[in-house]
Design goal:
The chain has 302 residues and is α/β, with parallel strands linked by helices. It has one domain (5-301). Helices cover 45% and strands 20% of the residues. The chain is built from 12 helices and 9 strands. Strands 1-2-9-8-7-6-5 form a 7-stranded mixed beta sheet, with helices on both faces. The longest helix is centred in the last third of the chain and has 29 residues, at 243-271. It is globular, with a radius of gyration of 19 Å. The two termini are 30 Å apart.
Length: 302
């Protein structure tokens, strides 16, 4: 399966400022929006990611079919999958998680929950997406997605790991929705025909979703991709520092804050008994989170 060239745009839209490993083998990647005139340039980032909306929202089969006949309809159908941007609270995080997993981690999308929506008012519960990653040793990871947008960093991290614990235990706050790893596997398997996978690819993906011991030459482990968006405030520095000084201050301050959270990540893995899973964590600070979320969704969906 090939990753769309559009997915690589996330590395143009954002700048990576740090990468860390948290035992055992968990990766913490920190990105920031481009900075222009002492402000995060969210619009430039959104413009880089416009072409990824269809890759995220539509199945490969739908994208291929519509794209051959009517590109404008392709764009319209993709945006219709999003809930009205003024009411949306979560789909920007899901979209950015998709972009990072495909474009940075190089983990192809198998399925996004947005594909399964039959109307813009329909919520689909469970993991925010399903990807897979081939490792250098020939084994694979089946990656379940979880995204959180929160004004404070530590609560966002805590809520993400708690959601993953609940997901593993098939606990759903609404009490009337199916969820959990087994449900996600069956959902993916039953929706393979929505994609343009060849029979060979379908067989391969089913072997990852339902590995059979002794019949394959590789092992498959369950991993999680996490996107954390949180709010930062640099209003005083914006007014008093030079352009170079502001960029240096922002990068240093964010690195220092992330450093204080590494122990919390390890503690939440222990608290929620999530040992044995690999976590691919992406962190992105926002200025004025609510306003930026609204603005970016408007840019992406207009």
């Amino acid at each position: 399966m090939k990753i769309s060239n559009n997915s690589l745009n996330i590395t143009k839209a954002m700048r990576q400022v740090s990468t860390s490993q948290i035992p055992v083998e968990n990766n913490l990647q920190v990105f920031i929006f481009p900075i222009s005139s002492n402000q995060f340039d969210h619009k430039v980032a959104a413009n880089h990611l416009l072409e990824s909306v269809a890759d995220f929202a539509l199945s490969r089969k739908a994208k291929e079919y519509i794209g051959k006949t009517n590109y404008m309809k392709l764009s319209k159908d993709a945006r219709a999958k999003f809930k009205d941007w003024r009411q949306n609270t979560g789909e920007l995080g899901e979209f950015l998680l998709f972009c990072f997993l495909e474009g940075h981690l190089q983990a192809p999308k198998i399925l996004s929950k947005l594909e399964l929506k039959t109307s813009s008012e329909m919520y689909v519960h469970g993991a925010d997406g399903l990807h897979y990653l081939k490792l250098s040793n020939g084994n694979y990871q089946l990656i379940f997605g979880e995204s959180k947008l929160h004004k404070q960093l530590n609560p966002a991290i805590r809520d993400a790991f708690k959601s993953i614990r609940d997901f593993k235990e098939s606990v759903n706050a609404k009490g009337n929705e199916k969820s959990g790893i087994s449900f996600e596997r069956s959902l993916m398997s039953s929706n393979l025909d929505r994609e343009t996978f060849s029979e060979e690819e379908k067989t391969f993906l089913r072997s990852i979703v339902y590995p059979t011991p002794g019949e394959s030459s590789y092992d498959v482990d369950e991993a999680f991709g996490i996107f954390i968006g949180y709010e930062v405030e640099f209003e005083n520095e914006r007014k008093t520092l030079s352009n170079i000084g502001f960029r240096e201050h922002v990068e240093t301050a964010i690195k220092e804050e992330i450093e204080t959270q590494k122990e919390n990540v390890a503690n939440y893995i222990e608290k929620f008994d999530l040992y044995g899973h690999i976590f691919h964590i992406y962190v992105l600070p926002f200025s004025k989170l609510d306003d930026t979320r609204e603005m970016m969704l408007k840019e992406l969906l207009s």
